[in-house]
Amino acid sequence: MERAHAWRLGVAAIAICALVAPSIASAALPSPKQALVVPFQSIGRIKFGISKAKAFDVWGSTSLCGVGTGGRDTCDWLSTDPTDFPEEGGVLELKNGKVCGMLMRAGTDARDGKLTITRLKRWKTKEGVALGSSLNSAKHVLGGKLVATKHHVTTAILGGTTTSTTKKVEEITIYMRGCTVT
What we know:
- With 182 residues, the protein is an alpha+beta fold.
- The protein contains 3 helices and 13 strands.
- The chain starts with a helix and ends in a 6-residue tail after the last strand.
């Protein structure tokens, strides 16, 4: 009797791992190794108006989609590094199944407060500004500002929140009016 019970528990554990493993595997960073960040327009091949299915073709699939605070669909591609908060990753905001906002951010290591930038380190503007760049160099991308709006589209380049990252780019967000990435 104990042997049969132990066998059932082992089978149940394997079944649970099989169900959980795909979720963990799909919680990963966007797949492109490099991307051109174009303020007010795009991050790589992710542009305003492309469908969720096309976005998944570009960045890979994720199981981390849900209704965000704005009432729209929000999909996350996040690092699985357990020491980072927030995690390095990419986020897409979707309205009626189409991309209306996008974000890329570095992770912040909870142990030392430094930025974690792995796969996204080669996602840059034509001026070479990327996650981890100095905020001073980032200002040149938006005409001396870190947040600018043009034709109802906002681009925001944000600094880090720790002592060692306040003068470095931690996040770049591009969104249409009424579609703030949440």
